[in-house]
Amino acid sequence: MIVVIVCAVVVASLALAVWAGRAGRGGGISEFLVGGRSFPPWLIYFLAVGEVYSIGTMIGFPSGIYAQGPGYGVWFLGYILLAYSLGYFVAPLIWRAAKRYDAMTVPDVFGRHFASRPLELVTCATMLIALIPWGQYQFIGLQVVLSALGLALSPVQCVLIAGVVAFCYLVVSGVRSPAFVSILKDVFMLAAIVAVGLAAVLAGGAGTERASAPVPATATMDGNALTFALTTIVFQSLVFYFGFGGSYVFPARSERAVKSSTVWMPLYMLVYPFLVLAAYYGVRHHPGLENPNTVFMVTARGLLPDWALGVVAAGAALSGLLVLAATALGIGGMVSRNLAPNVRPAAQRRWTTVAVAAFLVLGAVLTVYASTLMLTVLNLTYMLLAQVVPGWLAVLYARRTAAGAVAAGMVLGVVLAVVLYVWQPSLGGVNSGLISLGANMLVTFGGSAVWPGPARPAVARHGSPVLGRGGRLRGAQVVAEQVAAADRQGAGDADHRRGG
Q1: For residue 156, is pLDDT > 80?
Q2: DSSP assignment letter at 252
Q3: Contact call for residues 44 and 248 (beta carbons, < 8 A)
Q4: Hey, what domains does the chain have and what are their CATH numbers?
Q5: pTM (2 decimals)?
Q6: DSSP letters spanning 231-272
Q7: pLDDT given for residue 86 in this prediction
Q8: Which stretch of 81-90, 200-209, 442-451, 459-468 has the lowest confidence by average pLDDT?
């Protein structure tokens, strides 16, 4: 029954992907990577929550509470709430920068804003190192979830099926597939989480004679634990949109569409009480699990009939496949547009598809033969993606930041993140990612203060190119004039320095 339901849902998702691709069939690289920048607010919302609430939400959040107690939930929920608040103001500016430079990847934005090919390459390398294990983690998550539900699939079969389905999603309609399949995924994922949470409540008093494990932490924090929670909330909320946001912000049709979608993002947090209930049921009724990551699935298996487990498996499978496809598309776009030199725009869609296939094969091989190594690297994903934050701040808010300082800060931040991760020094509870990010900012903005770059218009300080039906053209003209004025001023400053 479980296999039948999962197969039926995956087939339905492929049909939905084909249907979604009818609008952009025959389009170029813009249509493939960012949907021709035409997504309305409701589609941006589903694309965003589809990538944010992944298979890690279903298995990671309950396992964190199971293993570390309620303190884990405090900083986890805290950073998401702060990220949504920041996103309301920042996400539209990120879209504005992408629109201004006709960018489809973050390295596109940095390379064109600073007119620097080396910075484009450094940004591309940083994001590839961070995102490859993130995509591969989806392979591992799918394997863990399906195995915990008792499906008789080998690791090779799991990653092979996942890779083929994710590739089919992207080939038929590019970024439109993750966006529309996310709607189907949310239906099954929400149904699964609510079903397990309610079942845990209804069965809460049963089998108490087997309960033996206390909750492994208190509900209050102080000292290093409190410092860690507060610094992690700040650190991860910055990475939420600056690090991951480009993939689900760039396809929007306007700043207003981005802002409208962020307003409704917190609504999805209603799933967390049900995940908490499932975690505490596991603490009480399934103490001592060898792998805490299985607590949600173990709870589901103990409480739900087979047909309902099929719904849980379908929701988990779509969650993993969706993020895997979106990550593969992002990596493919950076390889074809930023890493490979001189690929003609007409050929970029074909080369992006090739890069997507190569990544899926690489991820599948690493999942089977080097999953432990890649999971170690995965823990660095947030710390590495954080190194693009100073560059984004310079693009949005600063006028004279030097491209060399941004690149140097990014390289220093990556090296320091790896060193701190391996060394694990005592920092009084401060999140080590915040330390590497602080060093990056010091080099980026301190270096630019000493050796300022040419004047460039800060994206946040100039009007949006989309001002509504009547203001669209005027807004674009205003920006163009501001860019030209800044160029003239930069040239004048350079002449003045040469003359003086």
Answers
A1: no
A2: B
A3: yes
A4: 1-203+220-385 (1.20.1730.10)
A5: 0.84
A6: HHHHHHHHHHHHTTTHHHHTTBSSHHHHHHHHHTGGGGGGGH
A7: 92
A8: 459-468
